[in-house]
Specification:
Order of helices and strands: HEHEEHHEHEEEEEEHH
Number of domains: 1
Structural class: alpha+beta
Radius of gyration: 18 Å
Shape: globular
Bound molecules: 2-oxoglutaric acid, fe (ii) ion
Strand content: 15-25%
Largest sheet: 7 strands, antiparallel
């Protein structure tokens, strides 16, 4: 039985932002063409793990797990994914015009990867269900992640699953597998599609039961007051000057070159 999430592409920015508020995610089909998908996959293949940055590239869990942090700092190609047209406008609308990225991860997951636990990436506020059921209670979107899918997803490759509207639970799932009687549904999208989702929506990556490696680029956006996660910490992360020199003013701001504000 198919467990696919029906993916609705809202054509306007207002519709996409409304989807972030009501469903917890927005589906953006066809953001990349075949050549862009191929060049991104090749760039991800070329990345070499930096252990000090908490990168991984091993099979210690019994499956290939190559996860490279701070990808924007590794190749100018990834810099262009900081402000991809069609995605960045959503981030700037939901998080504010001074929003920034808090991370960018190039992630390859190989055959044998198990199901993840259903989770919220971050639950900023825990609130009673009766408070959350009041439509006047509107929680700001503090953090979102754009998933750039670089494969045609099928059930075997390990699609991401979401429970629409579950960000309104007011809590992380903590072992629950349903919200209001609805379980996690597969995102069976195409290579080049993007799903951007807020941190509280209940979701998980699923088992890779194929013989293929799944390629995913994650761009994590946040309100300016949410700290960037660019390991290694204590001043050991350094921007690559050659890449920074190519950044536009908007890209620089998204990397953290802000106007002074609270606490600066
Ligand atoms: O692998 C996926 O599709 C989702 C991954 C995820 O949600 C996570 O690592 O937090
Ligand atoms: Fe997650």
């Amino acid at each position: 039985m198919s467990n696919a999430l029906s993916l609705i592409a809202y054509p306007t920015l207002a519709g996409q932002v409304q989807a972030m508020e009501e469903d917890g995610y927005a589906f953006l089909p066809g953001m990349l063409n075949a050549a862009q998908i191929a060049e991104l996959r090749a760039a991800m293949d070329r990345l070499v793990a930096i252990p000090a940055s908490y990168d991984k590239d091993d099979k210690s869990g019994g499956f290939l797990n190559k996860s490279i942090n701070n990808a924007f700092n590794r190749d100018p190609l990834f810099l262009s994914y900081v402000d991809r047209p069609g995605v960045v406008e959503i981030a700037e609308t939901i998080h504010g015009s001074d929003c920034h990225i808090i991370g960018m991860t190039a992630w390859l997951t190989g055959p044998g990867r198990p199901d993840q636990q259903l989770h919220a990436d971050w639950q900023p506020l825990t609130l009673p269900a009766e408070v959350m059921s009041n439509p006047e209670v509107k929680i700001p979107i503090y953090i979102s992640t754009a998933h750039f899918y670089l494969d045609d997803l099928d059930e075997e490759l390990g699609p991401t699953q979401f429970i629409p509207g579950s960000h309104r639970a007011g809590r992380a799932p903590k072992g629950d597998m349903e919200y209001k009687g609805v379980g996690p549904k597969n995102i069976l999208c195409k290579a080049g599609d993007v799903v951007i989702f807020r941190s509280e929506v209940w979701h998980r990556g699923t088992a890779n039961r194929s013989q293929r490696v799944r390629y995913l680029l994650q761009v994590h956006y946040a309100q300016r007051m949410i700290t960037q996660k660019f390991p290694p910490y204590l001043n050991r992360f350094q921007f690559d000057e050659a890449i920074l020199a190519q950044a536009t003013p908007r890209q620089r701001r998204l990397l953290g070159d802000h106007k002074p504000s609270n606490y600066d």
